[in-house]
Every structure is written in C-alpha cells, then in structure tokens.
TrEMBL record:
This is O-antigen ligase family protein. It is found in: Membrane. Residues 202-355 form the O-antigen ligase-related domain. It is a multi-pass membrane protein.
Length: 424
C-alpha cells in the first residue's frame, strides 16, 4: 500500500499557528507605530506602516475584506490616486519636473495600505491603544516643552512646527473620543474607556500648549459628529456631565497662563480689528487674509491651469514689488489655505482632486455614524472626523502641502476604512 503524504506541509513552510502569531505581532507593531510616529517619534517612521501591513497581508488568508475591491473601495483608491496624479501632472506641465513626486508619494502609500487590507486581518484593539498612548505621550511632551523648556509654543520634532504638531494632537484626541462606542461595547469597558478618555483630553492639552488656533474653529462640528455617534445613546445625566466636564476643561486651558491660549485668542481678535480698520501692520491674521486675497486674484487670472508651485511664489513676489500687497508675503510658499493652494498651483484639476479627497471618505464613513455595532460605529465616527478635521485645519493653513500632513491623512483614512470594512 502506497502511503499518501500529500497532506504534509512543504519543507520550510511556516506553520499556520506561527503565521497567525506573526500576523498579530506585525499588526500590533503597525498600529502602535502609527500612534507614536504621528507626533512623538520622527514622522518619517510612518513610512514603515504600509510595509508592516503588507507583511501582515502576506501572512494572512484569502478574503479578509469581503468582495474586495467593492465600488466603495475603488472610489477611495481613485480619490487617493487622483490627488497624487494631479500633483505630478500639473507641476510637470508647469515645468517643475518631478517636484510633484515629493507631494504625491504619501497618497501612493495610502493606496498600498488599503490594498494590504484585502488580506490583512487585525484586531481593532491596537488601533485605539496606539492612538491613546500616542496622544498621552504627545501631551506630556507638549507640557515639557512649554513648562520645563520654556518654549513659546510646543512644536514637536522638526520639520513639524507648532501648527502641525498642535492640530495633529487635536486630531488624535478626537479619534480617541471616537473610540468610545467600541470601548463601551466591550466586556472590559471601563479600563479601555478611561484610557480613551484620557487620550482624548490629552489631545486637547497638546493643542492648547501648541497655541494653534486654526484647529479650534472646527471643534463645534467635531463635537457634533461625536454626539451623532455617541450622545444619543447616553442618558441625559451622562450628556450633561460630559458637556460640563468638557466646558470646564476648555475653560481651564483658556485661563491657564502656561497654555498661552487667552493671549493667542486676544491677539487674533486685535489683529482682525486692525486689519478691518486699515492698519498696514502685518500680523499672522492680516498676513493670512492678504495671502488669501492675493491667491484669489491669481486664481482669477489662471483658473484652469493654475500657476505651479514656483510660479505662485514668483507671482506673489511680483505683486509685492508692484505695491499691490505687502512685500513680505512673497516669502511664503503656500497660500495658508488648502483649497486656495490647490487651485492657485494646480488649477481646476487640483481643486477637484482635493474636493474628492475630502468628500469621498466623508460620504463613505458618515453613513455609519448613527448605525451599526459599537466597533463599526466607532470606526465610522473616526473616519468622519479625519476629513472634517483636515477641512478645518486647511481653512487657515495648507496642511496637505506638507508630506507629513498628506501621509497622516492617507494612512488614517485607509486604515480606518479597512478596519471598518472588516468589522461586523
């Protein structure tokens, strides 16, 4: 009788239980690195997240994401790909060679991340753990920089600065609050809920100690998204308690002299009054308003094709030399507004690509904010908050003009969507 050895694994093959174990470790490493490298570690380490997820996918089984790619997956991949492609094509048309590659690669990594989720399976636990621990570490560093080192504004690692550092810290805090639907549905609800609440509050502290005012504009809309996801499932007493605690915290951050929040707000109000009164002194507020005015006029001259990156800066310098605007504004290389920056540099295609990048993920996630299981609803709230926050940040600063901003956006959107698609 011939012995049938066909069932035996090939020599050198990794046993199934080890594959599962390695897959878990790689997924944990990717999620913890995501939370740490956004602000605490150098942001370039975020580049390692997609390869870790690809290794996780290589060890994974077939069909971890149902019916991939679905129409929604293709829409998200298309939004990321279009943003990167328009950046490359339009800057090349303006004679800037391969400069667009420096801005497009984060969106390519985002596409790779989403493709990895077609086979990668990971517990969502480590996403929330990474975000909460990263937010707590970032707030501790912000307090250290501001109180111990005596810096004017907490700013993190170079090339990040106070605006990027503070707004990304605020986003991490909001994402921690988004995870509460997941934590309250768990058996060990209180340890996880307290960790996420601490991470959420830490994000507010990071933002306050950075002095970044732009992120505060969108807080009411972000709170509304959180309320849509969580608030209507809480009793009235819990709603009142949480609102009172939040207002008390925001009030404390405002009045504490160490944060500098009151000084920054008062300065913004005074600067606005001076600008309306016709004062020529350049402040951070009046400079933004003048840059927006100048960028809008340049858009009217070339609405379809834009000016390109170097062309925009040259045109702004020429306006300063002609006395149309303050000469100092020519040194800024972006328009301090993502919509204006995309349109003035990359024309109408750049504007449309940016709007797709914002509103396709917003449409995909917003439908699940008020429905589904605790895990799935938490991911939907988080996925909605990411474009809402970036639209807010982009009102007063060109966040996506920085590779760090583009990479954080692309990774968060694709990771949250991949987990959302896998959630029950």
């Amino acid at each position: 009788m011939i012995e049938d050895n066909s069932y035996r694994p090939l020599a050198g093959a990794v046993p199934r239980h080890l594959k599962t174990q390695y897959q878990t470790w790689l997924a944990v490493a990717a999620m913890l690195l995501l939370g740490a490298a956004m602000l605490v570690l150098p942001w370039t380490l975020l580049i390692a997240v997609p390869p870790l997820l690809l290794l996780t996918a290589w060890l994974g089984g077939e069909g971890q994401m149902a019916a991939f790619p679905s129409r929604q997956d293709l829409l998200l991949l298309g939004a990321l790909g279009l943003q990167g492609l328009i950046w490359i094509v339009m800057l090349r048309l303006h004679g800037e060679g391969a400069d667009g590659l420096a801005d497009a690669w984060p969106f390519a990594l985002g596409m790779v991340t989403l493709l990895a989720f077609s086979r990668a399976k990971m517990p969502v636990t480590w996403l929330w753990a990474g975000l909460a621990l990263g937010s707590l570490a970032a707030s501790g560093w912000a307090v250290w920089q501001r109180v111990v080192e005596g810096t004017v504004r907490a700013s993190g690692h170079e090339p990040l600065h106070a605006i990027l550092f503070g707004n990304l810290g605020l986003l991490m805090g909001l994402l921690c609050f988004a995870g509460l639907s997941w934590s309250f549905a768990r058996r060990e609800r209180w340890p996880w809920s307290l960790l996420l609440i601490a991470g959420g509050l830490a994000g507010l502290v990071t933002s306050a100690f950075s002095g970044s005012r732009g992120g505060w504009i969108g807080l009411p809309l972000a709170i509304w998204v959180l309320y849509r996801g969580h608030g209507r499932r809480l009793s009235l007493s819990w709603r009142v308690t949480l609102i009172a605690a939040l207002m008390a915290l925001l009030g404390s951050l405002y009045v504490m002299p160490q944060t500098g929040v009151a000084t920054r707000v008062d300065h913004a109000i005074d600067s606005m009054r001076q600008y309306v009164a016709g004062d020529d002194e350049m402040t951070s507020v009046s400079a933004r308003l003048e840059m927006w005015r100048g960028s809008s006029q340049l858009i009217l001259e070339r609405p379809l094709m834009g000016w390109g990156g170097s062309g925009y800066q040259a045109a702004m310098r020429e306006r300063g030399a002609e006395g149309v605007q303050h000469p100092s504004l020519g040194r800024f290389w972006h328009a301090h507004n993502d919509v204006l920056d995309a349109w003035v540099k990359r024309g109408l295609p750049g504007l449309l690509a940016l709007l797709a990048l914002y509103f396709i993920p917003l449409w995909l996630f917003a439908r699940g904010v008020s429905a589904g299981s605790g895990e799935r609803r938490a991911l939907a709230v988080a996925g909605t908050l990411v474009p809402v926050a970036f639209i807010d940040f982009g009102l007063t600063y060109s966040f996506l003009a920085y590779p760090a901003g583009g990479l954080v956006y692309a990774l968060l959107i694709t990771i949250l969507w991949g987990l959302y698609r896998q959630a029950r």
